[in-house]
Amino acid sequence: MPVSHPPAINTTATVHLDEGPKITLIELVTEAVVPNLSDELFQKHAEAAKKGCPVSMALAGPKITLNAKLLK
Length: 72
Hints:
By secondary structure, the protein is of the alpha+beta class. It has a single domain, classed as K homology (KH) domain (GMP Synthetase, Chain A, domain 3, 2-Layer Sandwich), CATH 3.30.300. 26% of the residues lie in helices and 44% in strands. The chain has a 3-stranded mixed beta sheet with strand order 1-2-3, covered by helices on one side. The radius of gyration is 14 Å and the shape is elongated.
């Protein structure tokens, strides 16, 4: 079965800087339209993408949060 791609995925990152400057927090907000996908499975995929992201791994020092929303 061929893999279908979601019609829409958008992620923004807000980076919080402290004195130095030092990155203290990165907030990711992802919104996606994925037909026939439960929110539970979407959250699972979003967390896996965050953990496997090369940028997230390179920046493992600061806390990185994720707010993922499945849009219907």
